[in-house]
Structure to design on (732 residues):
């Protein structure tokens, strides 16, 4: 019990508990840079606490001081003098011998769509555009079924049977295919945005979205306007997502 | 049958095996899931003729025959668990994905529904497959396995080293008359029914129904030979391809050998890069033949060399009379490294931005070209590149060399410690691949490592000595104060 009353042991315990909590208690795991920041704050707080009055500070420093000067701690001193430099040397070795990693590809994932686009020579206004097939409520099922067929014959290789971006070509490409089940993709986009992305594909992306890397074909070469709107209906229907609406300007 | 208690009772009464507890599914409920998730490939009638079927290789399963590739039974009838497992895990190397995202109940209902397409085939009860006692792997067992591999003529289809290049390859047809390639035994991660020891042994013992892969339990000399064969197959290749995200070019000081079979190359770690089908420009390639290339690369003060290894079951050169294409492979770089992130379009550039290709074609050797798109490739005059290829047992090995520095605008210069974009394309002429029908990658990075620096041997001792000095100083000061 005496050990627990020592200021030094208390400080070390607080640090260990804080580290274990930050490292394993947070889901998904926090990156090391964040962990380092949190631990610095905890360390600072502990130092302020133990140095709040001179008695407390002396008590905290006592084990450190005694290790440095006490005649009966000679062996501990020797061990520390050998082990600590070796550990730091090993750390320096792992840093110096580390293999470089491929640099990350930074890109805008959802760039702003153009106000209008040329679809096979026809001008289509994107801003404010809604899926024209949604007006045909009687034909909803027919359109979704047609969209499903277009999807499985063209899109499934990358975007996957389950629309989760895990098609059998998916793992070979970077950036990876969009995961439509993810609420961060089609659920936060207007249908007209999808129309633009499907019609113009990778080559139609602005520069900040790295058009040279995207494997998405420009589907205007292969699909009709109606087929693209049908696929879009299928994407929302099959994932149970709702398209984002245009804000009414008032 | 909604209650789990009833389901367990039913399993006990019907004498279901002790694998995973089978649940009795509801075929009607299964149809609802089937119509949403399976119909696109397997078709409304379960005959494997969904709208996507014609584009898929291997073809989707025809449930109306009741024949299932992957089963753990001694007769032709699979356990319900066998069907459940394939729905759950999918089939590697095919278009069948894992449906683990569906609730268990849905998957058991699907099992009941797909069985209903061939109800009469399931009247017979599944018969338990008894595998012989397991034999662990050893040099001796692998040797015995290799003997058996030849004795029961596995190599006729799978090839002498297992790379699916056996002489019977071209004649193989499945139950429905579609051509079906043999498995490449060096790529375990594409095994349809799984790559564990037991799974491989089970495939050997029970065969793969609907394909030319027969049941071997009675053909081997002794039942335990199944395990020797399994151990031999496991020795043919790695467990997983361990794909690279960066191609590292090693610095060397000696001359670089031209011979692709030289020991020099075996000592280098391969960077394994996956290739996918080109599905942007017609004709598209939905079933790419070359799915992996292993890259080993080195440079010295004069030149850079790439050693490429890839599997191709058929060696072919261009033959317009027979409509045959040449096998080939190419490395793609931007003509000049750019300072920003911009680079040419990954699919061989476009009209405004060209790419540089360092390529090899069977019969033509190593050449350099500039491309402004996959159909606009122009050879670069004045050859600077050279190379040599070797083909054996379904595998190409190729060395391509080039000077490190280039003064021309169309060829890049390679600089150590700079990240250089690189992409790959490959063609298996024997599989009808040529032109835009190819397998490819998007952009990767290549990096020439700095010439062997002694940094990692110098810095650590300095750090250690400095730490020791500081610690000694602290001890001294503390003692003086005390």
């Amino acid at each position: 019990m005496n050990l627990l009353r020592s200021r030094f042991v208390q400080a070390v315990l607080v640090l260990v508990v804080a580290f274990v909590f930050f490292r394993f208690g947070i889901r998904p795991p926090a990156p090391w840079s964040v962990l380092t920041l949190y631990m610095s704050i905890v360390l600072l707080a502990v130092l302020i606490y133990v140095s709040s009055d001179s008695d407390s500070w002396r008590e905290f420093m006592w084990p450190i001081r005694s290790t440095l000067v006490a005649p009966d701690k000679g062996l501990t001193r020797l061990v520390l003098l050998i082990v600590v430099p070796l550990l730091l040397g090993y750390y320096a070795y792992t840093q110096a011998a580390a293999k470089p990693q491929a640099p990350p590809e930074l890109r805008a994932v959802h760039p702003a769509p153009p106000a209008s686009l040329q679809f096979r020579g026809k001008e289509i206004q994107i801003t404010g555009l809604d899926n024209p097939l949604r007006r045909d409520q009687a034909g909803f099922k027919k359109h979704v079924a047609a969209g499903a067929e277009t999807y499985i014959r063209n899109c499934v290789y990358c975007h996957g049977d389950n629309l989760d971006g895990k098609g059998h070509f998916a793992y070979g490409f970077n950036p990876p295919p969009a995961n439509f089940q993810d609420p961060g993709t089609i659920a936060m986009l207007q249908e007209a945005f999808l129309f633009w992305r499907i019609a113009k594909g990778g080559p139609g992306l602005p520069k900040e979205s790295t058009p040279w890397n995207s494997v998405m074909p420009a589907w205007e070469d292969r699909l009709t306007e109606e087929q693209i709107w049908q696929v879009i209906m299928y994407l929302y229907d099959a994932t149970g997502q709702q398209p984002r609406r245009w804000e009414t300007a008032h | 049958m909604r209650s789990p208690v009833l389901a367990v009772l039913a399993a006990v009464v019907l004498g279901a095996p002790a694998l995973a507890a089978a649940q009795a599914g509801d075929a009607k409920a299964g149809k609802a899931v089937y119509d949403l998730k399976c119909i696109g490939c397997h078709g409304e009638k379960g005959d494997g003729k969904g709208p996507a079927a014609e584009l898929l290789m291997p073809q989707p399963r025809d449930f109306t025959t009741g024949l299932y590739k992957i089963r753990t039974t001694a007769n032709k009838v699979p356990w319900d668990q066998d069907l459940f497992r394939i729905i759950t895990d999918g089939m590697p190397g095919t278009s069948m994905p894992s449906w683990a995202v569906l609730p268990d109940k849905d998957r058991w209902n699907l099992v009941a529904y797909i069985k209903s397409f061939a109800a009469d085939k399931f009247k017979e009860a599944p018969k338990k497959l008894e595998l012989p006692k397991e034999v662990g792997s050893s040099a001796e067992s692998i040797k015995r396995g290799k003997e058996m591999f030849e004795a029961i003529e596995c190599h006729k289809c799978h090839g002498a080293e297992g790379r699916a290049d056996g002489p019977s390859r071209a004649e193989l047809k499945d139950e429905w008359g579609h051509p079906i390639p043999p498995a490449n035994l060096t790529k375990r991660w594409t095994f349809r029914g799984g790559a564990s020891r037991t799974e491989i042994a089970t495939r050997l013992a029970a065969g793969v129904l609907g394909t030319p892969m027969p049941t071997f339990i009675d053909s081997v000399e002794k039942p335990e030979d199944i395990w020797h064969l399994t151990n031999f197959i496991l020795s043919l290749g790695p467990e997983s391809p361990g794909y690279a995200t960066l191609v590292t070019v090693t610095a060397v000081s000696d001359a670089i050998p031209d011979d692709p079979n030289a020991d020099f190359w075996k000592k280098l770690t391969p960077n394994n890069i996956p290739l996918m089908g080109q599905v942007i420009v017609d004709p598209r390639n939905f079933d790419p033949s070359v799915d992996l290339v292993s890259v080993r690369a080195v440079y010295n003060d004069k030149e850079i060399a790439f050693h490429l290894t890839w599997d191709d079951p058929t060696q072919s050169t261009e033959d317009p009379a027979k409509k045959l294409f040449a096998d080939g492979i190419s490395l793609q770089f931007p003509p000049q490294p750019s300072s920003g992130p911009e680079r040419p379009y990954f699919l061989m550039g476009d009209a405004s931005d060209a790419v540089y290709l360092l390529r090899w074609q069977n019969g033509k050797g190593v050449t350099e070209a500039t491309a402004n798109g996959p159909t606009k490739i122009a050879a670069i005059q004045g050859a600077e590149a050279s190379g040599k290829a070797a083909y054996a047992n379904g595998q190409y090995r190729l060395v391509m060399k080039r000077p490190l520095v280039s003064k021309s605008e169309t060829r890049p210069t390679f600089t150590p410690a700079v990240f250089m974009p690189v992409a790959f394309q490959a063609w298996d002429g024997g599989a009808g691949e040529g032109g835009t029908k190819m397998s490819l990658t998007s952009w990767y990075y290549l990096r020439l490592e700095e010439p062997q620096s002694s940094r990692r041997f110098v810095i650590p001792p300095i750090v250690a000595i400095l730490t020791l000095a500081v610690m000694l100083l602290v001890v001294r000061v503390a003692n003086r104060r005390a």
Q: What stands out?
A: The first strand of chain A starts at residue 116 and ends at 119.
